[in-house]
Amino acid sequence: MRSLGKTVDGQTIREVTPSDWRFVAFPLHVGKSWEMKYQEMRPVARQTEDIERKCTVEAEERVTVPAGTFPTFRIICHNSRNNALVMTVWYAPEVRHIVREESALATGTAVQGADRVQSCVKVVRHVDPRGPNGK
């Protein structure tokens, strides 16, 4: 079983097994749902957690980010154990990528109402790998 890792300054800070987990499951359409089960290891913190998520395509909507405005599928992912919202992503088929991501982060050891902070990632620029005319 392969894993996917995140390394900072040569040190692995996060490893996910199996590596085939995904926030997008094709083909996409409103109402589609899928589940993800994986193990997340954080060696520096000496923590391991079994993760279970259920993701659902909620809607199609246009999203404006610094790179432009794109038609997207809005996908929400919940913790399968307690139904807490974990993240929302907007996938743009035109660029074949997530163009916006919002995640619930904990300020302490648990994510709960008032302790929740919003993290938001937006695509700043998109360069079509096929060239300026998309060919």
Topology:
Layout: E1 4-8, E2 11-17, E3 33-42, E4 47-65, E5 68-79, E6 85-92, E7 97-106, E8 116-122
Antiparallel strand pairs: 1-2, 2-3, 3-4, 4-5, 5-6, 6-7, 7-8
Fold and architecture overview:
With 135 residues, this protein is mainly β. The chain has one domain (4-122). It contains no helices and eight strands. An eight-stranded antiparallel sheet has the order 1-2-3-4-5-6-7-8, with no helix packed on it. It is globular and about 45 Å long. Mean pLDDT is 77; it is low at 107-119.
Throw out a few tags for this protein.
eight-stranded antiparallel β-sheet, mainly beta, about 140 residues, single chain, globular
| Strand order in the largest sheet | 1-2-3-4-5-6-7-8
Instruction: Tell me the overall shape.
Output: globular
Distance between the termini: 37 Å
Q: Return the domain count.
A: 1
Largest sheet report: 8 strands, antiparallel
Oligomer: single chain
Number of helical stretches of at least 4 residues = 0
Which structural category fits the helices and strands? mainly beta
Rg is 16 Å
